[in-house]
Structures are given as C-alpha cells and as structure tokens.
Write a structure and sequence with these properties.
alpha+beta, D-Maltodextrin-Binding Protein, domain 2, Dipeptide-binding Protein, domain 3, 3 domains, four-stranded antiparallel β-sheet, globular
C-alpha cells in the first residue's frame, strides 16, 4: 500500500496580530504549555520526515522503537527485549498493553506495516537498505533479517515510529491528513495550518511516570525576534532556536531559564569531486587549511565547538589526534603545487533556512577563501532548490547541516562517502562528496562489526583517513539553545535528545 497522502501546507507569515491573539492564552490553565517554534508544526500521519528541527512534533504523537536516554545512549522504548538468532537475524518483542490514540492495541503487524510504508520512500531507502526484511511473528514479536551483520541496526530501528495500521486503512480515515493515531503521550486536538497545532493528553498512554501537562499549543513563529518577544511578554512558555545574542538578556530575567540540549547541530562543507580542482587532494587540503573554523566557533560563542571530524567528542569513535589545521602559508603552497596559484572560482549551495548566527558564517567563508585567491560564490536556495542542487551535483560546494546523535557517525559517513559500487559519470550517478575504496571498506567494516571496542577503533581509523584525504571541510558543532519560563520544571526533561521530550515534564504552578 502506498504511503498515505499528507497535507503539505507551508507556514503562513506570522504577524503582530498573532502575538495579540496569543495574549489571550495567558489566561489558560496552568497545565497548558505554549511553544513558539521556528518551524512548521504540521502533524504527520506517518513519521517519514526525520529532520531533528521539527521532529519534536512526531515525538508528541508517536513513540519510536528505540530512543536516546538521559545519558545519550540508544535505549529500548516500545521494545522490551530482543534475541540474536544469528548475526543477520534478530527477534524483537514489543511492550504489551500499549494502545494507539484510536484505542487499537499496538501489535507487531503495525510495526511491519509502518516499515513497509516508510522504507518505500526514496529519501529513506539508503537508511533501511541493509534490512532485508521485517516480519511480524505473532501479536508482539517481529523478526528483522539483514543482508549482512549490521552493527547499526538498533540505531536504524530508532527511526521507526509505529503507526496504527487498522486506523489508517479504514476507509473513513484515508482522506484526512488531520487524522493521526500514534502511541505517543499526546494526540492532536486541533490543527490550523500555519497558525497553531494543539495537543491534548493521551489518557491511555503506557508510561505511568508522566507529565502533568494536559495541553500543548505549538505556534510557528519563524522570525527569531518575534519568538523572543513572545517569550519575554509571557505569551509563550518555551521557544527553540534562541539566537546567541539573546542569552545574556535572558539570563537577566529571573523568571526565564536558558537550556541547551546535548544533541548537536553540525555544519560542514561537502565537496563535489566532479570539479577537477576538488578532485585534487592538495586543493582539498588547502581548503581545510584556509578556513579557520576555531575562529568561526568563537564568533558563535560558547555554544559552538570547532569540528575536525564526523564524531563528537565523547563518542567512542572520536579521534583526539585530529586537530584543527588552519595555516594560510601552507594553503598557498599547496595551491601553487597543484597549479592553482592564480586562484579559481567555486559555487556553494546554501539553504535559505540557515538560522541566525549560522548565516553569518557564509560571509566569513567568502573572506577566508579570498585570502588564498579562491572566489567563493554563495547561492542562497529554498529548501526545495537546495535539495535539487545537492541531488544533481550542480554546485561545487554544499554547506551541509546534519544532526549528530549517538550511534549515527557511520550513517553520516555512508550518506557522504559510500558509493556501493555505483559509477559516477558526467551524465549522472550518485552525488557524493568523495569516494574511494579504502574509505568505503572502512564504513562497511564498521557497520558489520558487532564488538563495540573494535567498531570504535575502526571509526577512529576511518576518521583519520577522511582527515588525511581532506574529503570535506568540518566547520563546527553547535548546541541547540532553548529558553523557557521557570514555571516549567526541567529536571525530567531529556536533554540528551536533540529536542526536549515532554512525557515527564512538570509545570510548577
């Protein structure tokens, strides 16, 4: 069955009238939470969009099979136990007593059906490609078979949010994108596209230790200044994507708190190897040497950390020997050796949705590369045109934003570097930043190594090879900053996730 059609309506412009209307919400009961978000707040019938920026909506409505715990490790959520039958065959058991918003019980058949729907999506095909099959065995058990031993299977299963097969295949629900039935702690009560999405508590939610929040109202407010104004005027209780320059002002308000999640946003530059200059290792190394990413991180403040690799400090695969390498003199020498001493031009695809201080990075990159006679020409593109530029390899460079969380280093490496034997030609083929056999073999070896210590060593060596080949330009990791009213008790908020989770959140008044 094809994926159910979903309504795709972009958020309407937020005006001052919205802030006036929000004022009426201040009279709401203490157990109502109002969230001002930088993103659209559209509920999905099936979770097939995994953008961490807006995925908090999905976690209100759905539970994944696995989820990051408070320590940042992937832990069971809807799964209670599993049994390894062979290196390519694992049986899983679901938690009993879990019900959907419709009242239907969660079964292994729902998991199988959900997997069939999302694995058919082109943008998720690579994510689930190592999985040969996912089949229900009985009411609560299902079996996963993989094409090869696959160490990241648990991490991939964390992207499956079981949906209600019985509810969605009922004729009366097939035409309405408002009809959502998940197992999450909240359910949709009202949806006005571009204006507000309202959620109410799922009274039959399976967790006993839960939030005292009864209703959540999510309001899309794209402009940062308006989000912050809404918070300071107490029209909203929590806002995301707080600009760095507001932190000091927020800290002076004794009724507001500033928090950061452990999930990190990663900014880097991917290189199009179809450009003859970028196919030259000396040129790639020169690009890395010409960009002072420590300076970029300092400009962004204490919430940014200069990056030298795919892994985050603290992850098992992090290679501490890989240091920042800004050196203008050596960059000039390498370009001269490569025959580009007179310089050349490069285009760079940049998403228009780049937020706040991150957008300032582009002008600094232009200035830094100009010092080595490289003329960088940014191309600011809508999200749709940006993705098209990435897929078609039409830009020399791509400013890439990715979300780093536990266990997905190999996933990022695969997306960036693994060709799986598909040829690259001028006429087409996969658009990857860089590919060679050694790096491809290391990615596959890491994915197939089930021993955690051995896998960490493989990843560290992979990071070293990528670093030496200068196959991309890492810029920085940036923690996500949130601000919220102190009426919200944040002790139980899971900040290891890229976004706060609310099933145990407590409102104090």
């Amino acid at each position: 069955m094809a994926l159910l059609a979903k309504l795709k309506i972009k958020s309407l412009p937020i005006t001052l009238l919205l802030l006036v209307s929000l004022g009426a919400w201040q009279q709401a009961k203490a157990n109502t939470l109002v969230w001002g978000t930088a993103f659209h707040a559209e509920p999905q019938q099936l979770v097939d969009e995994l953008d961490a920026n807006s995925n908090f909506i999905n976690h209100l409505l759905f539970d994944p099979l696995f989820l990051l715990d408070q320590q940042g490790r992937i832990a069971p959520r809807l799964i209670t136990k599993w049994k390894i039958i062979s290196p390519t065959q694992i049986q899983f058991e679901l938690r009993s007593g879990v019900v959907f918003h419709s009242g239907n019980p969660l079964t292994a058949e729902d998991v199988e059906w959900t997997f069939q729907q999302i694995s058919q999506q082109a943008h998720l095909h690579a994510l689930f490609a190592p999985i040969k099959s996912l089949k229900a065995l009985n009411t609560l058990q299902f079996e996963v078979r993989t094409y090869r031993p696959f160490s990241e299977l648990i991490q991939r299963l964390s992207f499956i949010f079981p949906a209600d097969k019985q509810f969605y295949t009922a004729e009366e629900n097939t035409s309405s994108s408002f009809a959502v039935s998940g197992t999450g702690p909240f359910k949709v009560s009202r949806y006005v596209p571009g204006i507000v999405t309202e959620f109410e508590i799922h009274s039959s939610y399976w967790r006993t230790n839960r939030s005292n929040v009864q209703r959540i109202k999510v309001v899309p407010i794209k402009q940062a200044e308006m989000r912050m104004a809404s918070l300071f005027s107490r029209d909203v209780d929590i806002v995301d994507h707080v600009p760095e320059n507001y932190v000091e002002l927020l800290n002076k308000d004794k009724q507001l708190s500033v928090i950061q999640t452990e999930g990190l946003k990663w900014l880097a530059i991917e290189l199009n190897q179809r450009n003859p200059a970028l196919d030259n290792r000396r040129v790639r190394q020169a690009l890395n040497l010409a960009i002072d990413n420590i300076r970029l991180a300092e400009v962004l403040g204490p919430y940014a950390l200069a990056s030298t690799q795919l892994s985050i400090p603290g992850q098992a695969g992090y290679n501490a020997e890989l240091l920042p390498r800004y050196n203008l003199l050596l960059a000039h020498q390498l370009l001269q050796q490569a025959g580009y001493e007179k310089g050349f031009k490069l285009t760079m695809a940049v998403p228009e949705s780049l937020f706040g201080d991150q957008s300032k990075v582009v002008s600094q990159l232009v200035s830094m590369l100009d010092r080595v006679n490289i003329s960088l020409q940014p191309q600011w593109l809508s999200d749709q045109d940006y993705q098209l530029a990435v897929d078609s390899c039409s830009s020399d460079l791509v400013l890439t934003r990715r979300q780093g969380d536990a266990g997905n280093v190999l996933s990022i490496a695969r997306a960036m570097f693994l060709s799986e034997g598909e040829p690259i030609t001028d006429e087409g083929g996969p658009c990857k930043a860089y590919q060679n056999d050694k790096i491809s073999q290391l990615i596959l070896a890491g994915e197939q190594e089930l021993d955690e210590e051995k896998r960490a060593k493989i990843i560290q060596y992979l990071e070293q090879q990528i670093y030496q080949e200068a196959v991309f330009v890492p810029l920085y990791w940036q923690r996500k900053i949130w601000a919220l009213n102190q009426r919200i008790d944040i002790k139980n908020m899971n900040r290891a996730s890229p976004f706060p989770l609310f099933e145990q959140l407590q409102v104090l008044d």
